[in-house]
Amino acid sequence: xxxxxxxxxxxxxxFLQQILEIVPTALDQAGxxxxxxxxxxxxxxxxxxxNERQVISAVNLNPEDLLPANDPRIVSLCRAANIxxxxxxxxxxxxxxxxxxxxxxxxxxxxxxxxxxxxxPADGLAGIQLFTRAMGKPISDPSFxxxxxxxxxxxxxxxxxxxxxxxxxxxSLTFSWEYEQTKAMDLLVQAGIFKRYPNxxxxxxxxGAMVPFFAERIRYIEGVDAYADYKRFYVxxxxxxxxxxxxxxxxxxxxDHVLYGTDAPLGVPPFGADKVITQALxxxxxxxxxxxxxxxxxxxxxxxxx
Length: 306
Fold this sequence. Notes:
By secondary structure, this protein is of the alpha/beta class.
């Protein structure tokens, strides 16, 4: 069975070089971004199992986090990164079935233009990646809503990846990102994003974080309408195994809203978590039909451009 990993990461080498020329210390606070398979695309491809296909997205080395908010290079860096990501898909179509575009969150008008110019018409760019916070604000901030409106109109998905809340001093990769992911989902639901854009497609990393475990707290505290809106999110399977948790994820979101994702090449050294996640899915008591949806069918449906 073909496995389409919808949340596989790269750090496009030309883009990385451009960033390091501007900010030589850009990787100093994120050692995990130095993983060799992020930028050595040849070795990245060789590391994959024969039945693995990937939708690639850049790790969270965002120009707007490194440069002054009014720096015009931010937009050009995002545009160049998208061209490089698209080229990877074109150069290695047997492995990379799509890529996720970057948008400059410091300039929403420029982000909308970039979506129209690069994402909407381009073969290879399947959607865009947003993060749980941007420019010191939660992603649910009204200033970012035009991006959600645009993507809903285009019927193209948004990939939602966690980042640390820069106001906190005790962040950890184990727990903080999952809290930030959960909080972002909560804020989007409370903001009524799915009420205004019922066709909006958001793919949440790490199996929807805390939401499946606390589903009944959501139902009784936030109400049945909010509970139903949480189920509108799509989620991946990137929780490094744990069949019981994956079964709970499928039970809450439904098999038609769960997509295979591994966080490759991160998580389990040296090549990533594809084996442990695949085994966990087979051990989760899912049906053959559910597994087919998760491994590839949901992606095929979601990737169809309007």
